């Protein structure tokens, strides 16, 4: 009796293993659509500074400068920062925003719809657990400012963000243009800030359109570059979705700035001569 049962059981299992796969709902993955897939082996040809003794870095960090930003031009209104926040939320990605104090200055932006949106976006950045860092108040490179001017710029920017959100900035800052002087580097480290240079500059030339910017980033990634990508709110809103699609298709993970720093540290910032009095 037992023998018969075992025989029927083995026939049944054999039947299942042959027939069932034909009824499976799983379809082979198809990345062809509009997404570009790298044909290079990602573990090859990575520059030395992306390599790690046990692990090859295959991560990028998304950073956005000069926000919050909204285009208002007669009938043309584009909520650039809001669009970026929506995409990041949908994709469950944590990014870093380097904020300009002047964008939140009510003498410049004026009260009203745009100012209200800027406040909402600042609140969302904190609430949705992005990293929020200081860029500058007026977009002046740090090496062109005196210590006093830099302190005032930071204090102003902190104060407006505190008033809007009740939150404090992270330790990460980024000088407009990226460069700092030795004096600025010493001041920042004394104050506990971490200057955040980048590995991939999405806009090496001015006035590029979103398509050209996306192509630049993809080109750099194809060369094997990974790490911190510098982008801007005013253009990234138009290509961010395509960029995320490209990264996903190529199994390049997006990590937070904090996570990158923990694993690999921050890139060295090039020093220039100090010009501030
Ligand atoms: Zn900037």
Task: Report what the structure shows.
There is one protein chain. The protein is globular, with a radius of gyration of 24 Å. The protein has one domain: Glycoside hydrolase/deacetylase (TIM Barrel). It has 8 helices and 10 strands. Helix 5 links the parallel strand 6 and strand 7. Helix 2 runs parallel beside helix 7 and helix 6 packs across helix 7. Bound molecules: zinc ion. Zinc ion binds next to strand 1.
Provide tags for this entry.
277 residues, alpha/beta, TIM Barrel, six-stranded parallel sheet, two-stranded antiparallel ribbon, 40% helix, globular, binds zinc ion
> At the third CATH level, what is the topology name?
TIM Barrel
Radius of gyration: 24 Å
Oligomer: single chain
Largest sheet: 6 strands, parallel
Our count of helices gives 8
| CATH architect. name | Alpha-Beta Barrel
* Unreliable residue runs: 9-55
The number of E-state strands comes to 10
Strand content bin: 5-15%
Q: What shape does the CA trace take? A: globular
The domain count comes to 1
Can you tell me the CATH superfamily? Glycoside hydrolase/deacetylase
Decide which structural class fits the backbone: alpha/beta
Residue share in helices? 40-55%
CATH first level: which class? Alpha Beta
């Amino acid at each position: 009796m037992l023998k018969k049962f075992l025989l029927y059981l083995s026939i049944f299992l054999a039947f299942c293993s042959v027939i069932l796969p034909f009824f499976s709902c799983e379809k082979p993955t198809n990345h062809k659509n509009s997404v570009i897939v790298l044909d290079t082996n990602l573990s090859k040809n990575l520059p030395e500074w992306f390599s790690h003794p046990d692990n090859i870095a295959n991560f990028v960090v998304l950073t956005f400068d000069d926000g919050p930003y909204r285009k208002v031009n007669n009938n043309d209104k584009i909520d650039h920062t809001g669009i970026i926040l929506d995409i990041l939320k949908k994709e469950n990605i944590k990014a870093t925003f380097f904020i300009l104090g002047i964008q939140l200055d009510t003498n410049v932006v004026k009260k009203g719809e745009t100012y209200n949106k800027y406040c909402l976006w600042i609140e969302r950045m904190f609430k949705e657990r992005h990293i929020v860092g200081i860029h500058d108040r007026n977009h002046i490179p740090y090496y062109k400012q005196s210590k006093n001017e830099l302190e005032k710029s930071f204090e102003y920017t902190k104060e407006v963000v505190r008033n809007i959100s009740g939150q404090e900035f992270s330790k990460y800052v980024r000088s407009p243009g990226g460069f700092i002087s030795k004096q600025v580097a010493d001041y920042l480290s004394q104050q506990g800030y971490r200057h955040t240079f980048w590995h991939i500059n999405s806009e090496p030339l001015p006035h590029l359109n979103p398509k050209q910017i996306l192509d630049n980033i993809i080109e750099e990634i194809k060369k094997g570059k990974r790490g911190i990508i510098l982008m801007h709110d005013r253009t990234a809103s138009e290509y961010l979705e395509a960029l995320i699609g490209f990264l996903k298709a190529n199994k390049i993970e997006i990590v937070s700035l904090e996570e990158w720093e923990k694993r690999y540290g921050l890139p060295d910032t090039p020093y220039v001569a100090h010009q501030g009095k």
